[in-house]
Specification:
Layout lengths: L1 E6 L10 H11 L10 E7 L10 E5 L2 E8 L5 E6 L10 H9 L2 E6 L8 E2 L10 H14 L5 E5 L2 H12 L4 E7 L16 H6 L1 H6 L2 H9 L1 H12 L7 H8 L7 H12 L10 H8 L8 E6 L9 H4 L7 E7 L6 H4 L1 H14 L2
Parallel strand pairs: 2-11, 5-6, 5-8, 8-9, 9-10, 10-11
Antiparallel strand pairs: 1-2, 3-4, 4-6, 4-7
């Protein structure tokens, strides 16, 4: 089990991958850090004996969803959502910790990942935010889960945020890495300062036909580069990356990813049936459910400062900065801290 200590001040304890760290600083600049309520520092990491066994499948909405399930079937449900370019492997250790505490943990592959498949060839390979959120609502409905704790990072955090904002009756508590990530096409129209625009280089690459072809042809190596840039102090092994890379072997992966980033820039319109949801999301609705937000001290991917989104969470709310060289894939890099946040929000919801 991973162990961390609570300290009053952040301390940098990792000196790995200096070259990648320098590259990250050149590309993204030094991220501003808000003063944390308290900081969680990874110290000793002992591997947790947690592996996903045979994956399950269930028809839910537009998809046949592949998912892992760990823990007692009558336990309190926790749904953990992965991001791009990652997969359900991010939650192997987290799920083991939570299952040992009696939680029923479900980790679905999002559309375009792993063993999840569209039920119809005619369904648009749409990656817009509301479509992904409704996939998870359909997943909960199919499993007859009325209410669950949701946790996520990257695409997964955005999806969990949307469900918490628009369907609070379905969410007991929320754990969101990098906080409030709900966006809109209108909100993305305004240009950013040059260094901030540089951080989104891959989004602009995906906006071109060359980028779409390049991602489809080089998915494996492209995503490994993103891992290195987004978590410059995480010295992940080839074996760890290859485990997640299996999740990119999906006939719709490239199409969904490209559409997601093109939709953000207004280059694709999305589907009309999601227009009303997108109008609501464009108003940046507050999140009222109990929430714990997390941020790693070495997150090399674009992310907001915690001070910018704290006011969007109007219910019980706690923020933690996770120190020790923790990057973008926080659940996999700091599994004990993420699992503790899930248990913390469960207590907030009591």
């Amino acid at each position: 089990m991973a162990v961390y200590s609570i300290t009053k001040h952040s301390s940098l304890i990792s000196k790995l991958t200096i070259i990648l760290a320098a590259l990250q600083l050149l590309i993204f600049g030094i991220a501003n850090a808000a003063t944390p309520i308290y900081a969680l520092t990874n110290s000793v990491k002992v591997p947790v004996a947690s592996t996903f066994g045979e994956l399950k499948h269930i028809r839910a909405g537009l998809l046949d969803v592949g998912y892992a399930e760990v823990g007692p079937p009558d336990g309190e449900p926790v749904i953990l959502l992965h991001g791009w370019p990652y997969d359900i492997s991010s939650y192997q250790e987290v799920s083991g910790i939570l299952a040992a505490k009696g939680y029923r943990v479900l980790v679905p592959y999002l559309r375009g990942y792993g063993s999840t498949r569209f039920l119809s060839a005619s369904t648009p390979r749409n990656g817009q935010q509301s479509a992904v959120a409704l996939d998870i609502i359909a997943f909960m409905d199919a499993l007859k889960i009325k209410k669950a704790i949701l946790g996520g990072y990257d695409w997964g955090a955005r999806t969990a945020d949307i469900i918490a904002a628009l369907y609070p009756q379905r969410v007991k508590g929320l754990v969101s890495v990098s906080g409030y990530l709900i966006g809109s096409q209108a909100g993305n129209e305004a240009p950013l300062p040059p260094r901030a625009e540089l951080a989104w280089w891959y989004q602009f690459y995906f906006a071109t036909e060359r980028g779409a072809a390049g991602y489809a042809a080089n998915t494996h190596d492209f995503n490994k580069l993103i891992w290195q840039l987004a978590s410059p102090k995480w010295n992940f092994s080839d074996a760890i990356y290859e485990q997640s890379a299996k999740g990119f072997i999906n006939p719709d992966h490239a199409a969904v990813v490209i559409d997601n980033y093109r939709w953000r820039l207004g280059l694709t319109k999305g589907e009309a049936k999601y227009n009303e949801l997108e109008k609501k999301l464009a108003l940046a609705p507050s999140i009222t459910v109990p929430t714990v937000t997390l941020e790693g001290d070495a997150n090399g991917a674009p992310h907001p400062d915690p001070s910018q989104y704290a006011g969007k969470f109007t219910g019980k709310y706690v923020h933690h900065n996770i120190t020790g060289g923790v990057g973008h894939d926080l659940p996999q890099e700091a599994p004990q801290a993420f699992a503790d946040a899930i248990m913390e929000v469960a207590n907030l919801a009591k």
